[in-house]
Amino acid sequence: MKHLIFAVINRHDITEDTLEALSDAGYNGTVIASSSLRKTLANNGEIPMFVNLINVDEARYEGNTTLFIVVDEEQVEDVLSIIRKCTKNFTLSDGGMFVLPLEKFEGSF
To answer: Rounded distance, CA 75 to CA 42, Å?
Structure first.
């Protein structure tokens, strides 16, 4: 069975290391620039609807990075372990992650 891993990283300075570690281990997925509710409300409700990757790498983008990764069930713990290691178990970044089983999956990541 396939599983969908959502990981939200609130610190852009560790995002690149996390993405590189996942890629080096052979994983792929989707990366989306996102913003928390609190930060969006603090910015008068302005949501960065379109942020390209160059903005994520620059200091002026200080939002979250949300990862969507689809893997086989036996790969879930490996991906979570890589993310934990890169984020120091989320002690340095106010982020989090969760996993959902996928009833149906088509295509590739």
So the answer is: 38
